[in-house]
Queue: 3 jobs
Job 1
Amino acid sequence: MRICSSVPHSLLLAGAFIGVLSYGAAAQTASPPAAAPAAAQPLPPGSPMIGRPDNEAAQKLAPVAPPPIAAALDKLPIDKLKVPAGFNIEVYAAGMPNARSMALGDKGTVFVGSRLLDKVYAIVNKDGKREVKIIATGLYRPNGVAFKDGTLYIAELSKVSKIEKIEDNLDNPPKPVVIYDNLPKDEAHGWKFIAIGPDNKLYVPVGQPGNNVLHDKDHGQIRRINLDGSGAEVIALGVRNTVGFDWNPETKQLYFTDNGRDWMSEDLPNDELNRVTKVGEDFGAPYCYQGNIPDPEFGWGHSCNEFTPPVGLMGPHAAALGMRFYTGKMFPQSFKNQIIVARHGSWNRTNKFGGDVVVVHLNKDGTAKNIEPLITGFLQDNKYVGRPVDVMQLKDGSLLVSDDWNGAVWRVSYGKQKVAGQ
Amino acid sequence: MRKITIITLAFALLAPARAAETIEQRAVTCFACHGEHGQSEMENTPSLGGQQAPYALIQLFMFREKLRTFEPMNDMVKSFTDDDLQKFSDFIAKLPKPQPPTETGDPARMQRGLALAQANRCNSCHNADFSGKENVPRLANQREDYLNKTLSEYKDNSRHGYDGTMADVMGSVSKEQIADLAYYISHYR
């Protein structure tokens, strides 16, 4: 068993097999990082720079923004992306700047949200040929999309809306109708991933409004609402910023990724893979990260024992975003009911980490056993040539991966390569 | 504002000849408001010289898509292709950097501005010399009025950033502090 922080960075970056990042393992080695050197001036409360040490190495780090223009087909870095033997990777669709979360329609339409633009795209598959349409525009950070019974649900920064019978009206869709807007308007972690659970409710996260801040009762949580927007209920607390979740097909338990805080150290904390076993569980932010590190500022007076620990650790600053259980028949049996996770990749780390798609194998008790790479190569010489955001299985068992750096969607298949969608 | 609109219209009439023009010829339109040598002399209008190309590309793109609203600029780039946006941002980056004002600045205000820049860790993304990097803009010696206006717009969320970082940072900065920051950064040497 290897532990993330003890593995040489080069090995991690190469996408080599990464050992178990279990809670227990990390507990033995994680030591609270030394407090940052006192700054000359106190930072204002809520500043995203809280915790940032005032040194040259830290000054070099800043959030990485993707280009606003989608890469042309012939400029997509497909020759740089690596998949294991037997797998194939191809371009499913391109030309969608800032392509983010995905949802699949009953008739095979792939809906794609965006975070830095105002658009929602639809990839229409007709006779093996795919066409990209813009189905909504003028929205504010429409990162989240979900689909159920003919209706598309769209999550903007502070509201959720729907378009009924969307697949019958792709060329002239009506404007989205708001169903729920009792949401904070903070920019920080305000964009949303959404999905509809086995209970037929829409799950809507509200991130912590800043890197490391005490949040009020309206933030740092996952809510669920009825599909008409009524009956809002908080089901998970202490959630810093989740941008991907799905339900275990066997236990029906909700699993979600959660991004750890910035500026604690290069190697800690890890992003979390969490599991909700009962309504109202608290996952620790901002008091405790990765289940065993009390926050150097807010952890005083608390113990990590007060909170539900993660079932898996996803690597430091990795930005583990979209995740789905694999239930298809195309991939090898070892993928069945395991979790595929898109790690968008770090910015708050000198040697970037993540920028890959991995499979998290689970133990019988539903905790993470190990992590193996599925797609690597998005990170080249410490620079991104692509960044995976969300993963989604198609009906044929192949897997789509959205990439907000290139404005494209990739398709991974296994076995003799077939044309997408056939 | 009226003056800008008139200039915009005048140049819009010349548009059909565009395709054959060099970037230098086309950029004459930009210089009318933004200044000929990278340094603006027009109120509330930014100097463009030495701007980071990825940042300039994002802004031109946002003007075209009306994700950032300022009518003269929305009009100016509405028919730009992706390639045009790229060419203009690369061109802007090569213009000479704006120069600091000849007067060195009131020491008390400079001191307050410096302290605020440190306290808010502006250097974390914009670099210690405010030269910027990649998608983070150069700020050094930008026009004071433009800095003041922009920081205020980020604070009240009337200017939406490409991402939410500046809205987040400005949440805790007061109006008086914005004035001192703008003064300091515009006079930075």
Job 2
Amino acid sequence: MTKENILKEGLLEQYVLGELNESQKQIIEQLRTSDTQIAAQLNAIELNFEKIGFDNAITPPFSVKTNILEKVSESNKNKTNNYRMWLSIAASFAAFFLLGSIWLYSELNTVKEELKIVGDKNDTLLKDLEGLTENYNETSAWYAALSNPDTEQYILKGNALSPEAKIVSFVNHENKSVIINTEKLPQLDKDHDYQMWADVDGEMINMGVIAKEKKLMAMNYIDNAKSLNITIEPVGGNDHPTVERLISNVYLD
Amino acid sequence: MDEQIDTFGKSLTLMQDNALLIKQLQAKDERALSLLYDYYSGALYSVILKMIRDEGIAQDLLQETFITIWGKSHQYSADKGRFYTWAYRIAKNKVLNFIRKRDILIQKEDLSVYKIEDEPVKFDVEFTKLKGAINQLEEHHQKAIELVYFNGLTHREAHEEMKVPLGTYKSYIQQALKKLKANYGSAVTLLFMMLK
């Protein structure tokens, strides 16, 4: 399609009247931007047709305009309504998510609290378990010591100073251990403690202070002890026994 | 002549305003549609009326044309031609589509849809009379323009209607347009200079 052809064939007029097919239309539209002569021709044709149109104008009845404007404003309103509808849907979703978030947040806090409680309980249980294990180990050790066939049992009975006192001592000369049961030792005031001594050739040697809260406890084993003795001493123990306050003794054979 | 220049002077100002109005139309401004309707509806109604020759249908089609102009305004671009040309093509297609559908219905002998006997076709022959500069053309030139422009015929259909060869028919149109340009005269040239 040469330019000469286009002008001769009246394609420009057909273009303006909308008679051309899509590919021809595109060629003319392209030429319009690139070729000033074609553009001027097209402008002239369009102006002519427009002028003919306006020369022959017939005023339509006013109702047509009213109808058009009504329809258009209706469709515009629908769009606004649609917009409002979507907006309200979006708003409800936002509210829903907000409430959901608040609920989830409170749930999260509750769960956190519960988790903390469970954690604390777990800690307590672990401590209990530790205590129990310790107790068990201790008890096992005591039991092992007490049930050892080499262990000899000596009972120290209270004298006139402390008639109700009774101490059971377990002495093992093989592995050199002394364990005492203080269950039946009367309570002392807070300024005094019981202390245990071993008599070696007439000399009293310290075996240790008896702890107030323990029922079973190990004391120092002293070689060649002839007897075991218990005195009442100032709190924390003494370097030498206060013989006047001896409450019990037992001879070892 | 004075009157013609006046008309063009007025058209020119309106035309410049139209660029703004068209922008507003594309932004879905109902006021712009109303003003553009005032400006173009007469010319478009005339084209539709001359093609369909029934006032009631013509008014419906004019309405549909402007609804389409409103709905598809974003498709219009000033680079591709004048707004009137774009609107004219929409109007013409509305009429041709209507006629096509009606012909299919007539073939199926279902006339009831379009021909309600209580409402006879209302059409004033006065409407077919051409006005303005086109009347200064020779009759065959006038006829050639009328057939394609107002009757919605293609060049091919029009040359058969006029019983002249297609080439002859095309040259009728071109000569007619040349003469019109001469008739509209300096005002059109002036308009070009101002447009450029």
Job 3
Amino acid sequence: MKRFIISVIIFILPLVLLFTILEYVIRNIPNDYSFKKNHIIDKGNEIETLILGSSHTFMGVNPEYFQSVAFSLANTSQSLFYDKELLMEYNDYMPNLKKVIIPISYFSLSHKLDKGEENGRKYDYLHYMNCKTKILSNKNVKYYSAFLAKGFSKSSRAIKNYVFKGKTPISCNSYGWCTSYSYSKRHDLKSTALTAAKRHENGSLDFSENVKHLEEIINFSRLHNFEVVLINTPTTKYYYDNLDSQKLAKIFKTCSDISEINSIKYFNFSHDKCFTEEDFYDGDHLNDRGATKFSKLLNDKINCL
Amino acid sequence: MLFNSIEFLIFLPIVFILYWFVTNKKLKVQNLLLLVASYIFYGWWDWRFLSLIVFSSFVDFAVGIGLGKQENETKRKLLLLTSILVNLGFLMYFKYFNFFVDSFVEAFSFFGQSLSASRLKVILPVGISFYTFQTLSYSIDVYKRKLEPTKNIVAFFAFVSFFPQLVAGPIERATNLLPQFYKKRNFNYNKAVDGLRQILWGLFKKIVIADNCATVANNVFNNYQDVSSITLIAGAVFFTFQIYGDFSGYSDIAIGTSRLFGFNLMRNFAFPYFSRDIGEFWRRWHISLSTWFRDYLYIPLGGSRGGTWSKIRNTFIIFLVSGFWHGANWTFVFWGGLNALYFIPLLLAKKNRQNIDTVAKNSLFPSFKEIFQIFTTFSLTTFAWIFFRSESLGMAFDYINRIIVNFDLVIPRHEGLAAGKSLIVILPFFILIEWLQRNKEHALEFDNIQIPRPIRWIAYYSIVFIIIFFAGTQQDFIYFQF
């Protein structure tokens, strides 16, 4: 038994050392989260318009085309809960903030925080963006390790790219807009729309939790004198055709009601005829051309009223 | 708790240390520790379903005691029937109730009658098909007087819930596993080291082979209407490796973990994709289930003793039931039926046991005939897996139809296949290692004397590095749903 235990310990020691090195490396690889946090801390006082939300705005709204100084704090799969957390966390760094743009996607109102949420993403919000709510329990070992939270596959890919190719996973420019969804790399719209529609459907019509987050954002904005603008971003008809029309109608009605009750602006671009198939990267995301078009349009809309 | 999780990485050493250092003096306490550990392991997923295991264990324990005391054959039959009804009743309720309801509704609607039936909103308890079969084997063996009923309740409960094989097998026989709980287990260095090697290989199969293949297979099967025929074939082949890596990987980890605790579980996979015919494939694939059905269904039905029709009937029954055991869907039944169709010509020609030995036993390379046989068997198996993987029979037929109708020899191009780039190197490496080790119990079984420690350790570290750097996106074990 002694021999066995000693052999196992000798075998494991180099692995523990390797794990420690990998953990150190992965924690120090710059990513979209750390980049955006640093930008807000350094240049937050310049920001007048803040864009929140998921990949639909991360890729679809380019702050460069805004009349005011704008920055995108949107990120992939970012829910209203995180929008609220980030706004409250970084508000003090943005004394000139006048407008906050919040997209309501098909999944935004029915999203459940713990269902299907990746631990790696929770780790990013906790450790890189200083999210205050303990979305990962400190009894969970993944709370303490980026490598474990993100999983072997993602972590090792990120380390390989960083160490051997010098590539970071940062996908946004200095405005916080995701630059990797270019027209030239676009995917088949029909198949990706179907996959996205399936992925975004959780079968829930219970919006209460997310409406509460949204109302908290609106109340917070009222208290700090900035304006909230709700939007539905453009997507392809293939995407909409595969969504539950009843749920979709309820989403639009909820947005209208919230806008009316709270006297805030609401623009629904989901079926906007301005956007053709050429403007999309995949079934539900705009490409760089589409993002330019949409950003200009959105800028005009929020400023002309 | 998943074998490929951090929780298990912490759980296993704790149980191991308590088992060999704290409770090793008393067998009863050691068994009690295994029982508690097994319940924690299972309860980690959903503690509410522990009550099912406890109830099922209690019924079979009581039935066993009753069978031991009872001499009256009618009463003995009644006792056995109680065990069968309770165990299969649970299985029917949790796994098949909605399937039967839906099938009845569909059947009536086919004849123009519309029925409305309410479905149950129940979750399928993980591993229910495995542990119910394990406890049933106890009651049947005691009934047949092949096994003395146990009075040791802790040992029996630990046998039913033994954590390494609780949720996905191997489905152990009471005659093999239960007596191991009666005897004092002594730590055996070589056995424990071999157990660790088998765990390592199981993790490699699951994390690298199965999880990477799953990403590709899922992408193809989820978008099968939009991809080329070659991509569809590639998707089916990747699923073939996924299910093997997933299930045999789990079995390797289960068997290896048991060895750390001084237990010997039965072998569940014996390099099945090197089989030369379907008969051989089924002697090498999910051995614990195949032999369970052979011993408790096929032989009681008459086996291959009767005439031609009785052989065909019995073969169909065993394959259809085996398919149905996998899941409440006609796709599994069809998959079972298809395998029966593959098997029956061999059975009728009395060639189902012609390939008993390992392929190319005394040579490094197989003959051309063997290559052809292996390729044919692999292709037939892959074809059958399409039904197993599809969500409905309609989807499976459509999938196959698209392979045939749109057949062209273009290089597969689909974004989903990109996820499998690393598999181009890893899969051949995996097949090569398995081929070289095909005479062994598992692919990492080494003779410590023949291979010096530095070389062995380099091999282990290489596998660990491959696991870390080529891990696929974590997926649930496929067989958990069964």
